[in-house]
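User: Hey, quick favor. My workstation is busy. Could you predict this chain's structure for me?
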Amino acid sequence: MKPSIIVSTKDIAGMNIKGILTGLHGFRETTETFHGHPVHMKEGIKLYTIDSETIHSEGIDTEVEGDWIIFATRHKAASGQKSFSVHVPGNWEKAETGGKDRKLCTALPAVMKEAINKIANTYAGDEFEIIQECTHHGPYLEKPCMFIEIGSSEEEWKREDAGEVIAKVVNYIVMNPAKKSKSVIVLGGGHYNQVATKIMLNTEYAAGHICPKHLLNQLDERLLKQAAEKNGERFEMAVLDWKGLGAEKQRIVEMLDKLGIKHERWQRMSKEE
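Assistant: No problem, here it is.
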């Protein structure tokens, strides 16, 4: 499957990453244009530039050649925590920041696992946190897709060293097919999901969709089934952050059992009980 990379002129981090991909990693300008901008390419992999915010680029997958899409963007957080992050787009509730109400994109868990491990192997410092975020925001696409982001303020978005880390990782994952991994969804925990990140870095599994604790009340059978069906290849089970399920424990387990979805508590898998 061939990937495509998309960045936005409205995104400082995305343009930082693009500059390094074109300057250091061999993505050369072609005669082709897309949305008024030159398309860059390396070994058949295309880098597209758009003027709209990536989270509102609904249906852009019908316009680009790739079979799956990686958006290289900024991440903004009030906390100011410096971060390198990955996540799947989609909405567990009403779509207030792009996408469609209660619609999830198809995840790329194996690719995200490669990405987050490559970040960990590339970045030797402790200034930036390496994290997998929960499924959130738009756009809604039919093709599998993911976001890879630099957080969390303009200072970090512009940093050349941060851009170099993510550009190196993007170049690697689009040029090298991801190793196959059994995929899981994660239920519970925070937006910055520690359980999913540990799964990615420390186990054989790859995490795709994540529904955090504060949105578990939005889950019904239809949405839970959608998460499992759109979690990429080799879906194995739901991993439950048992301590992070709160009052939803029994209802979630009953839904999983009714749908025939295997589930396991993270605290038992990891012996963190």
